[in-house]
Design a protein that fits this description.
There is one protein chain. With 577 residues, this protein is of the alpha/beta class. Among the domains are: 2-84, Arginyl tRNA synthetase N-terminal domain (Gyrase A, domain 2, 2-Layer Sandwich), CATH 3.30.1360.70; 161-255, no CATH class; 459-568, Isoleucyl-tRNA Synthetase, Domain 1, CATH 1.10.730.10. The chain is 53% helix and 11% strand. Helix 8 (213-227) packs across helix 9, helix 17 packs antiparallel against helix 19 and helix 18 runs antiparallel to helix 19.
């Protein structure tokens, strides 16, 4: 709708001989259809003109509005309401969508701007758990939306691959060889090497409770790794490699990809440099033997180096931020990390500002709420009864199994390979969309049965609506009915649908600006709901072939919009279901 609103704003400015920035943004739908199709509130014009808004509205209404798509201009107090000439508006709307072709929805608001989006960021030697879903999918959707709005995007996976915990795994190699010899069979040849590593890690921690010396052994192995000991490095690289293979298999299933996958291990030299820089700036202080940087009164100091000289997450985040800006000078850098890390990022960003980095103002914590599972009748953060994390792979498998039974029940004649393909798209799509439909700062209750429903605010509901579009278009093709130009789309419901379609590029731009995928998910739900209401009341393919042709053009525009929106959210738009 942007092009129509801008024409109204430009004409209003010309009539009043006044330039009003962002006047087009103030134009919206009236509260009821009876008042018109678009409404311009005149309040922000009152100050510059020193006139009452109602008087300004009357002045504008009395002027000429020579647009072929405007039928009438009327006032309602301080509001200037426009009624559309529906046949002309419908043709122009469909032309706009057709001109967009495969790039429909794309924009240029981010042209010339680079954004780094950090997301997922799991620890190696561990499985991706269900709580990783939020960062992974929200981050990928943000990257997709930013690219679609014209930004250059660098998607970044900041792996946790460094620290004393890896010293424990390196120690396990020799100390628990009788329990599990990681060289026989070789780690790379195992069916589930990550689970085997986890089992040894748990065993090591249990043994440490009765033998405190094992903690010292782990630290020794990590010191060897830091010093570049060939055996330590070789084993660590093997652990890293099998972990990445496991991650990549799940990422591919989710439609997730990264431009950069860099672990904390990469920043060893950069950490030494940042500590020296803090010392040189005179802001590194000692506190109880440790090195800290003090911030404002409402933010605790950031611990940079412990008493034993070891660095911490904060040190690594400082180093990684500096190195990122050197590698890819950015206009914006998003950290898609849960809200519980809010204080940590305030500290890190604050220290970088104290160092005088202007680009520190462009760092953003794109925080999100936790994912909760139902345990013993209550919603709890991503844990099972025994306290073990719920694996993401297991959740996806369960979702696909449930989707398989639902697809079978709805379409028992489908071939098994087709059922498997559809069930994968439905099951995985349902899990992904459940994470996208609410504002990211809200906590999410993960109820698999509900999110797989074909009704309500779910991924399958949107996929099913897309299937309905495809089915209508296939039927029209069989009947050799071509899409029309749209001039016969004069029903109020049809104008509402076209207005909704035309807002698609603006929704994408707003979602990218706010790093808020739920703007798009809610838009898609509204689009689907409005069409399904329309479809219950109107025949798309009827006896009037010319009207049918125009309604097919509407369906094609809806299909293009919904399909593109689903893809941006990493949900597969299906043609059959």
């Amino acid at each position: 709708m942007r092009q129509f609103r801008e024409q109204i704003a430009q004409r209003a400015g010309a009539i009043l001989d006044l330039e009003v920035p962002q006047l087009a943004d103030a134009i919206s739908d009236p509260p009821t259809r009876e008042l018109g199709d678009l409404s311009l509130p005149c309040f922000q014009l009152a100050g510059p003109l020193k006139q009452a808004p109602a008087k300004i509205a009357s002045q504008l209404a009395a002027a000429s509005w020579d647009f072929p798509w405007i039928e009438a201009v009327e006032t309602a107090g301080p509001y200037l309401n426009f009624k559309l000439r529906r046949d002309q508006f419908s043709k122009l709307a469909l032309e706009r969508v057709e001109q967009g072709s495969d790039q429909w929805g794309s924009g240029s608001s981010g042209h010339g701007k680079r954004v780094i989006v950090e997301y997922s960021s799991p620890n190696i030697a561990k499985h991706l758990a269900v709580h990783h879903l939020r960062s992974t999918m929200l981050g990928q959707a943000m990257a997709n939306l930013l690219r679609c709005s014209g930004h250059e995007v660098v998607s970044w996976n900041h792996l946790g691959d460094w620290g004393t915990g890896f010293g424990k795994l390196l120690a396990c190699w020799d100390l628990f060889r009788d329990t599990d010899n990681l060289d026989d069979p070789a780690l790379e040849l195992r069916e589930d090497p990550v689970s085997d590593l986890n089992a040894l890690y748990v065993l090591y921690n249990q043994a440490s409770e009765s033998d405190p010396q094992l903690e010292s052994v782990a630290r020794d192995w990590f010191r060897k790794l830091e010093a570049g000991d060939p055996l330590a490095v070789e084993r660590w690289q093997r652990i890293r490699s099998v972990s990445l293979d496991k991650f990549d298999a799940i990422y591919q299933r989710l439609g997730v990809h990264f431009d950069q996958t860099i672990g904390e291990s990469h920043y060893q030299d950069a950490m030494l440099a940042i500590v020296k820089e803090l010392e040189g700036a005179g802001i590194l202080e000692q506190s109880d033997g440790a090195d800290v940087v003090r911030l404002s009164e409402d933010i605790p100091p950031l611990l940079v180096r412990k008493q034993d000289g070891a660095t911490l997450y904060g040190t690594r985040d400082l180093a990684s931020a500096v190195l990122r800006h050197q590698m890819f000078p950015f206009d914006r850098c998003l950290y898609v990390v849960d809200a519980g890390q809010g204080l940590h990022f305030r500290q890190v960003f604050g220290v970088l500002k104290r160092l005088g980095y202007r680009w520190a103002e462009d760092l953003e914590h794109a925080e999100f709420g936790v994912m909760r599972l139902q345990v013993d009748g209550a919603w709890k953060k991503g844990k099972t009864r025994g306290g073990q994390v719920v694996l993401l792979e297991a959740v996806l498998e369960q979702a696909v199994q449930l989707a398989t039974s639902k697809v079978h029940s709805k379409n028992p004649d489908l071939a098994e390979d087709e059922v498997a393909k559809i069930a994968e798209a439905v099951g995985v799509g349902a899990v992904i969309f459940s994470d996208m439909k609410s504002a990211r700062r809200k906590d999410v209750n993960f109820d698999l049965e509900k999110i797989l429903s074909f009704d309500g605010e779910t991924g399958p509901y949107l996929q099913y609506t897309h299937v309905r579009f495809c089915s209508i278009l296939r039927k029209a093709s069989d009947l050799n009915i071509k899409s029309g130009g749209g001039g016969r789309l004069v029903e109020a419901d049809e104008v509402v649908l076209l207005k909704r379609v035309l807002r698609f590029p603006e929704v994408i731009a707003r979602a990218a600006r706010d790093a808020e995928p739920s703007h798009l998910s809610q838009y898609l739900l509204e689009l689907a709901g409005e069409f399904n209401t329309y479809y219950a009341q109107h025949r798309v393919i009827g006896d009037d072939l010319e009207l049918s042709s125009d309604r097919l053009a509407l369906v094609a525009a809806l299909k293009r919009t919904l399909g593109k929106g689903l893809e941006l959210l990493c949900v597969t738009p299906l043609e059959r279901m």
